[in-house]
Amino acid sequence: MPEKTWDDYAESWDSNNAVIDYANHAFESLAPVLAAIGDGTARVLDFGCGTGLLTEKLSPRVGRIVALDPSEKMISVLEGKQLGNIETIQSMLSPDLISIDSRLHNRFDLIVASSALAFVPDYPHTVHLLASLLKDNGYLVQWDWLLEDGGTGPGFTEAQLHTAFEQAQLTDIQVTRPFSMQMEGTRLPVVMAVGRNRR
After folding, report:
1. Separation between Cα atoms, residue 79 and residue 47, nearest integer Å
2. Does residue 97 lie within any of the structural domains?
3. Which residue pairs, CB below 8 angstroms and at least 24 apart, start in 124-128?
4. Model pTM?
5. Domain total for the chain?
6. What count of other Cβ atoms lies within 10 Å of the Cβ of residue 130?
7. Could you read off the pLDDT of 98-113 as tens digits, one per residue?
8. What share of the chain in percent tops pLDDT 90?
9. Which domain holds residue 56?
């Protein structure tokens, strides 16, 4: 039996309580960064946006959001929400996409990646690409499951996050555990990394 793809999850994604809770907690933990970027005119990239649960929460607080996801059906669900200040891109992020898609030519005040970067084929390279899309003083914010040293599965250790952000020449790096989620009887911590582009 073939493995499920993200397209297979799209239809029921927004009715999954754990997914909703994760997006709510991520948005709450983003408050200091939203305060730092200011006045409601910010350009935001939601990397791995899925059906846009975080995008929906950001939409009233910022100027414009580019929502990027490789799943056609996830993007379709987001487009069905008809949020006025959202543009969608159904694609993987790559240097070629950055060079040809004009929506990625204007840099971003904020890039968010909520439970998305654990699924890319080359995590440090993707962080480097995302950092290249930030304006001066722009922020990259990532949430993923925390892996303890020696752990396996989709997630990261705090050291892996810090190293990738450092290698992408981000500064003011903060790695925290802002919330945890009850999953199948186990409390799983979520790790959050914040970095700033001061080049």
Report:
1. 15
2. yes
3. 124/163, 124/164, 124/167, 124/168, 126/93, 127/164, 127/165, 127/167, 127/168, 128/167, 128/168
4. 0.92
5. 1
6. 24
7. 999 999 999 999 999 9
8. 77
9. 6-196
